[in-house]
Amino acid sequence: MSDHQNDLQDVAQRLELKLPHLLFTDKVRALHETIEKEWDSLQQSACQTAAGRALWKHMINDPVAGLLAGETYLRNFHEKIQKDYLNNAREVSGVILAVRTLWFDSKVKAALDSSNGGAQVVLLGAGMDARAYRLNCLKESDVFEVDFPELLQVKTTLLQAAMESTGEHQNLMMTANSLTRVAADIRNNDWFEKLQISGFSPVKNTVWVLEGILYYLSHTHAMQVLNIIADQCALTHTVLLADFMNKPSTTLSNSIFHFYSDWPDHLLPSLGFSHVDLSQIGDPDAHFGLMHDPLNLFNKLRNLPRSQQTYPDDGKPCCRLYLVQASGSPSQTIP
Q: Which of 51, 86, 121 is the last residue of a domain?
């Protein structure tokens, strides 16, 4: 058996499907039925992300991800993983999500360590993120989750159900200093005002987390969000953590993505960030022991110039995901 097949077998064995018992209570079932019937694809993507984190639990410590994902999304994701295993796939479903999650976790910790732990953390398009309950590095940080009102309400109710459950209560201890949920659509112009009304301080060091959100926005809305965050560099030390897709990723026939940037490390300095670091999946800081196969799609991408839009052997689009950390402060603001 090849090393790749051994890796696949190991993944398949680790990613077993264990459904939380709370999913079968009437209250939780009703909430997830609402999600499936009434939420649009953008809102539902929050549950898909949670399902991936729940199934990659041997890499990601998120004890409530399964509850937030729901039975349908867990089963669907698990079926994809099993098909990948049977088809000897080079990329098992969820592996990129796992790498992305671990990258953001590590960069949040590093940013807070460099600011002596007390910075605010804002999760834009927070979805079913549970970092405020699982990252110990947030113990001195005030965390703000910004997302659609209906999404945050369902999320809050699901977590309350876990708190009320004897078996789940011990797994749901908030690790952040405080958590504030801000009901706002970041596609509207009032989200930053709502964030400030909720207690966000524009003059306090801040880490902004935009994981899996920018490419769902139109170019206009994405640039509005990035400009608002970049403006904070003139007031206080500001760190932006975000993932960007390149143009080929948004032009596929079945793509639901809109905003792209082929060169985010050029875009962000033009907005006011003084330092930008860019990584691709498989780079030393975006590997986490999950990218060993040299024939993996993302390892092949890393060996091609970033300016190359298609693969030289078959002409297929080079779809890239960039993981970007940008920062700036009043003393470093670019004129």
A: 86
